Amino acid sequence: MSKPKNDVEVPDQHEALSVPGLVPLTQGFPGDAPARVTTFRDTLYTSRTVILPDGRTLAVTKGKVSVDISDEVALTCLKNHAEFEPLQE
Q1: Which of 51, 53, 69, 88 is the most buried (most CB within 10 A)?
Q2: pTM for the full predicted model
């Protein structure tokens, strides 16, 4: 026998899940959010994979690679690499 809908138990608390690398928006719509990425131009290749010191990879596509401004490892790697130039956006 199933319970009637009015007898369904509703939890008092909601559990928030932490997702690595996910930065929540403070308010508003995604189009209202300030830019959270910066783009670099690859001066040597139009397509390649960059391996970061921590083992993650970045894909260069059409001579460009974009990274989140909070990603210190990627920013440091690209800024210190002679083959990448930051683009003015």
Answers
A1: 69
A2: 0.61
